[in-house]
Amino acid sequence: MTTVYTEESRALGVYARRGVTLVRGENAFVWDDRGNRYIDCVAGHGSANIGHANPRVAAAVATQALRFTACSNVFFNDARSAYLDLLLSVAPAPLERAFLCNSGAEAVEAAIKFARHTTGRVEVVSTYRAFHGRTLGALSTTHNPAYRENVGPLPSGVTFIPYNEPAALTAAVTDATAAVILEVVQGEGGVHPGTREFFAAVGRACREHGALLIVDEVQTGFGRTGRMFAFEHAGLEPDLVCLAKSMAGGLPMGAVVCSARIVATPGMHGTTFGGNPVCCAAAQATLEFILETGLVDAAAEKGEYLGGRLAAIASPRIREVRRLGLMVGIDLREKARPSIERLQNAGVLAMPAGPTVVRLLPPLTIGYAELDRVAAALEQVLTT
56-292, what's its fold? Predict the structure, then answer.
């Protein structure tokens, strides 16, 4: 019985599997159980910003696992405190406190609760094409019907508006709005960056009506877009920032980083595993690695380089290439799935972002030679 067959027969069938069993990774490469090597532009859906099997993180995890693995949040912990200090040192003002959890969906759930608790209001404004998670509260702010089918009723009070339409945003935010939640780049929705005009309207509306601003940085945080946080491109001053994915070098961890406006009282929220000492040690090592290696600037430079290579591909099948840093969407005039399958056969792993978009989220540590190989594989797939 192979690994693939065992997992396929034993795991609940909520994933559309790709027919490959990955068993090992190193930086931007992964290997399957047959010894085939791939350049990984899926990277755990953007969780491997610092590459696979990063030695710095592995050492931190091993050391902490031998020291202390579980600590209730009713006690202080040195690993948790050290990571909070480092995380908040890179968070722009007015962000000054954080709630640690286990995933992006949990971070969004917590942010919505904190916003409603702080303002005493219920209404939330979200956007079409947004993806904020699959748990019921997060799903209430995710419009895609494919995720919402047969699981309702969802929590009420959410209004959806078109992304990048300032007038619609201005009309939707009222004195009853607890929060606006948005992504600076809509990832799952097709890699659509927001405009300056849209973000300016968001800031004005929130200030005018006393609404809080939640920015979902689950996929864009920690250097992915060429800034530590994507909202730094946009001139936004969020009250709550949702983080996860690449936060702990591939281990499950999330956070909500908050401004002083956020009111939290004992018992109104909590988590058993959030701020786990091993995950905090991994996150500490991850962020130190990002800072010490200049990985944020490298992501911006490599994104420019890859963007140039992709722009040179002369294919009528490409409608548009959208990009911010090393977050890349290649919008096709056809379904993306066949091209993704051909890329996999050519040794490059990519993923969709909607029906027509090929999405690339390589580790920020990827080399230029590997970027050339990714571009060459895309050119071959899209021109033949």
Answer: Aspartate Aminotransferase; domain 2 (3.40.640)
